[in-house]
Fold this protein.
Amino acid sequence: MSAMERHWGLARKAFANAPDPAFLVTSPGFEEAFARLVYDVTEARGGLSLVTGEIGCGKTMLANALLDRLAGTPHAATMLGTPRLTSAELLREVMRATAGAPPPRGRHALVEAVGAHLAAAHAAGRRPVLVVDEAQLATPSLLEEVRLLTNFEDRRDKHIHVVLVGQPELRARIAKQRQIDQRVGLRAHVVPLDADEVAAYLAHRLRVAGGDVCRVFAPEAVTRLAERSGGVPRLINNIATQAMFVAAARGERLVQADLVDDVAEDRE
């Protein structure tokens, strides 16, 4: 525990930029996007979902929440480590993640092995989910392989569901590839928090960390944090951390609005 956490009476860091599910704050917009995504993956029986949002708005947190929700179910999900893969590398990742077995050599053998495994999993009542984070960085060949993955199906169902998660430009990329675009069953967009949601976000994260927002931020500082961050969780975390650090170093008992302004201006 650092001197800053001790100063504010916290048991852990409150505003680390890590997708820790304990810190998950569900705004109405987040809840709607999450509910729609879970339904699309588990009930709608399509093959492809698209989730977008600006940098720092909580897309990865949503993706990790999906992995947690689906753990231990027939729709158990796997997060792809990087979107910068060739088509063959993607198939190998699918094979390793869903079959737990080393993939065969050669593209033809690899495609047949993936198809056979997914068909067997589906016959056993399982339908794996592959989540591709930062998908705006995906190569054209990887996006094409994603389309081909959705070809593994029978007359009633797709054998695998793919969730593409990325920044807004991902929508434009997908729109230009009609064969992929037509297969998207869900398009969800994660938006920044409004002022009330920012206040709830601060209160929740400080509570999880063992503190109390009223003993850390003055009411005007909370308002200013919402304004200066634009409601983007990653920016809230960064500004809040720096403001708390400076206030603690000065021996102050509350973070005031002018300090939030100073910290935010230093970042601009």
